[in-house]
Structures are given as C-alpha cells and as structure tokens.
Amino acid sequence: MSELPDGLVSYNRPVRCVHWSNTKEKQNSVMVECEDGERIVADHVIVTVPLGYLKRHHSSLFQPPLPLHKLHSIQRLGFGTNNKIFVEFDAPWWDADCDVIQLVWEDEDALVDQVPDVQRSWIKKLFGFTVVQPTERYGHLVCGWIAGHESEHMETLSEQEVMHAVTQLIRRFTGNPSITPRRILRSQWFHDPWTNGSYSHLATGCSEQDLKNMMEPLPLNESKARPLQVLFAGEATHLCYFSTVHGALLTGWREADRLISHYSSSNPSARPTSKL
C-alpha cells in the first residue's frame, strides 16, 4: 500500500451496480455505480466479493445480468458459516503441551444438520478449541470453532449469553466449577452484510465446471464485445484452494496476470512489469 499514490484507494464506498456490455455496438468502458451516486468509469473491474454476497445480490449487482450458466454455478456452490469464539482466561486450565482440545458428547450420533432445538443445544456444535500460541504474546487464550445453523444462531446472542454458554460447557467437560473466562470475542460472518457467511464449499450437485464458470471473465469469449470488462477473483473462484485465504490471494494474482497478459499480447512493445 505504501507504494501506491495517495488517494488511489477508497474505503467505505459500497457499490450498487457494475455496468458492462455484452454487445459489439456498445464499446463504452465499464462503469461502477456506487451507493452514494458516484459513477466510476474503468477499463476493467475485478469483482472479489464473497460467494455469499453474490448469492444474495447478483440480480442487482450486474447490468446486464450474469449469464445463466454463471448464475447457476453461483446457486449450486455451497457457502456456509464457520465462526470463531476467542476465550481469554487469567490462568490456563489445559496442560502446557496442549495444542487442541476436542469435545466428545455421549449422544453425538444424534447431532444432525437440522437440530430440532437450536436455541437450547447450539453450544453442542462448538466441537473444540485451539490453544492460541505463543502464550507470551497472547496470554491464556483459546479459540473455539462452531459452524452451521448453530453458528448462525450464536451470532444473534449477546456476548454475555455466549460467554455464559461457553463457561458452562468448559466447566462441564473439565469438572471444575470455578473456571471463569475473563472475556470473549466472536466473529459474526453470517450477519455481516458484506459476506453473508464465511467461505465456500463444494455442495452436493456442483462440479469442477462450476468453479471454472465462477472464474470466467465477462463478456464471454464468443462475444464480439470488448473483452475482459469484468473479472472475478476470490476463494470461490479457485479450482483447488477454494475456502482458503491463500486461494483468495492466488486468484487475485491470477486476474492481475490475466490483464498483464492481455496488454502484453495486444501491444508487445508496451509490456508492463509485473511485481506479482
């Protein structure tokens, strides 16, 4: 960021719509329409919003709408919620050489995707803790993991309610009624309006072709309109490393290299130097 000119990056500028063209007659640049009414003209736009956001807002985010095969892939791919609950203590209740704490319930086989009483039993979906290291830097801290519908319900509770449930859980499994967390901090990816969940997964009914459709630029290759108007990056567009941070990073590099290659082939004498 320090290498970029001042004022080049804008924050807190929600986008209402990305206007592109799929016809030869309209050769204008891509136009990004912001929520505040500002219109930004560009040669190319790289869309990196999470799949959950695309699922909810694809119909209004692109004009003209996305091609049907791309839309179907957005619908078929899975996008869930996996939250973290960081819990801090004054002293450790785990062994010094402990890295992971996993919880096993006697009736664990009864846990299914749709728990009848999520409000009462959501804490059972917290399947364990990771001990955050090193202690010298983070103190006595563990990170709890919870996913699925129970994770979404957890987001609706107050921090006090979450702390109480986690406290009772730890006391039950350790048999120590005096364990009391100092404080907690939890993520809320499902109710975040810009994510609507955490990351993608291969759902039943989808295939590798859906991931290829996700990464396909607009307009399509057979179109006679100006190419590479809208490009797509993000973890849900990587063929192998979907659902990961490194997958998201690699797709950003991929789309930057796609544009570098485009300009290199169209004007070899003006070949740009890539720092990626």
In this structure, how is the largest beta sheet organized?
5 strands, antiparallel
Class by alpha and beta content:
alpha+beta
Question: Strand arrangement, largest sheet?
Answer: 8-9-10-7-11
Rg for CA atoms: 23 Å
Low-pLDDT ranges: none
- Give the number of DSSP strands: 13
User: Which percent band covers the strand fraction?
Assistant: 15-25%
Question: What percent of residues adopt helix (DSSP H or I)?
Answer: 25-40%
Nearest-integer average pLDDT = 91
What coarse outline follows from CA principal-axis ratios? elongated
What sequence of helices (H) and strands (E) makes up the elements?
EEEEHEHEEEHEHEHHEEHEH
**Number of H/I helices:** 8
Measured distance between first and last alpha carbons: 14 Å
What topology does this entry show?
Blueprint: E1 15-19, E2 30-34, E3 39-42, E4 45-47, H1 51-61, E5 62-63, H2 68-76, E6 78-80, E7 82-89, E8 100-102, H3 118-121, E9 128-131, H4 135-138, E10 140-147, H5 148-156, H6 159-174, E11 183-186, E12 199-201, H7 208-215, E13 230-232, H8 245-266
Parallel strand pairs: 1-5, 4-13
Antiparallel strand pairs: 1-2, 2-3, 6-12, 7-10, 7-11, 8-9, 9-10
Keywords: Cytoplasm, FAD, Flavoprotein, Oxidoreductase
Protein name: Amine oxidase domain-containing protein
Domain Amine oxidase: 4-260
